[in-house]
């Protein structure tokens, strides 16, 4: 692996992408919507959470990653999701063993019509979640590529820094920009991340429409699953 945690050569890169393709082709089931810390499931699986501004395309990205059209609900009304929505990704076996993880869809932030009380409630819920989940491997922080890093994104980055939770910046809606424009946004985002100690140095640009970056993001997430036995996994295909 290179210094950013990615593969070094073509053969390793192909295996890296195949690992992600395999895991995200497995069953992905909605478990529950959490509105209080008492409802959180046991910390028996590694966990990856998705965060982003309202209307950033979070639900569409989760659907694209898992290959489902309606796994995560999309809405024309920003700020609709108010719960921590839990999904279990991985094969179902009689023993219950095998590579699996929780995907957690966090409520969107930054919607202008939110009241101060609701913003504070979001912050309290998410901060309590971040500080209390020892199995949380990484937060996938989604940023609209058309707008780049906004003040609300920086606030959440600082919150993640404070909680000492590693996060990866993922640009959404990359198909809306020309390649030269996207390149500038990627570079600007990477420069912003250098200011934040908990940020992963890599930036992945994605599109739920063209599927750009989807394979890379699947592989990045899958690499966070400890002791993933690809030999056994591929043998089950």
Topology:
Blueprint: H1 10-24, E1 28-34, E2 47-52, H2 58-66, E3 84-89, E4 101-105, H3 116-132, E5 136-144, H4 151-163, E6 167-172, H5 179-193, E7 199-205, H6 214-222, H7 230-235
Parallel strand pairs: 2-4, 2-5, 5-6, 6-7
Antiparallel strand pairs: 1-3, 3-4
Features:
single chain, 237 residues, alpha/beta, Rossmann fold, 19% strand, disordered C terminus, nucleotide-binding, cell division, Probable GTP-binding protein EngB, GTP binding
CATH architecture name: 3-Layer(aba) Sandwich
* Unreliable spans: 74-80, 233-237
Shape: globular
Tally of DSSP β-strands: 7
Counting DSSP H or I runs of 4 or more residues, the number of helices is 7
Q: Estimate nothing, just give the exact number of structural domains.
A: 1
Query: Radius of gyration from the CA trace?
Result: 17 Å
């Amino acid at each position: 692996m290179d210094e950013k945690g990615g593969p070094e050569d073509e053969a390793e890169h192909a295996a890296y992408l195949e690992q992600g393709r395999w895991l995200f082709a497995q069953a992905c089931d909605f478990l529950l919507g959490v509105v209080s810390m008492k409802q959180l499931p046991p910390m028996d699986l590694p966990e990856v959470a998705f965060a982003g501004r309202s209307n950033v395309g979070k639900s569409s990205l989760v659907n694209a990653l898992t290959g489902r059209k309606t796994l995560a609900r999309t809405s024309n009304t920003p700020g609709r999701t108010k719960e921590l929505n839990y999904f279990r990704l991985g094969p179902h076996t009689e023993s219950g063993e095998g590579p699996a993880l929780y995907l957690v869809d966090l409520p969107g932030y930054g919607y202008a019509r939110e009241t101060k009380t609701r913003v504070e409630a979001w912050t309290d819920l998410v901060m309590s979640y971040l500080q209390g989940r020892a199995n949380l491997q990484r937060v996938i922080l989604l940023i609209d590529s058309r707008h780049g890093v906004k003040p609300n994104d920086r606030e959440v980055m600082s919150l993640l820094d404070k909680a000492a939770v590693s996060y990866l910046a993922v640009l959404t809606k990359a198909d809306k920009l020309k390649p030269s424009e996207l390149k500038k946004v990627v570079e600007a985002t990477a420069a912003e991340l250098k200011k934040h100690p908990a940020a992963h140095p890599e930036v992945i640009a994605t599109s739920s429409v063209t599927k750009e970056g989807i394979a890379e993001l699947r592989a990045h997430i899958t690499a966070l699953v400890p002791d993933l036995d690809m030999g056994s996994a591929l043998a089950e295909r």
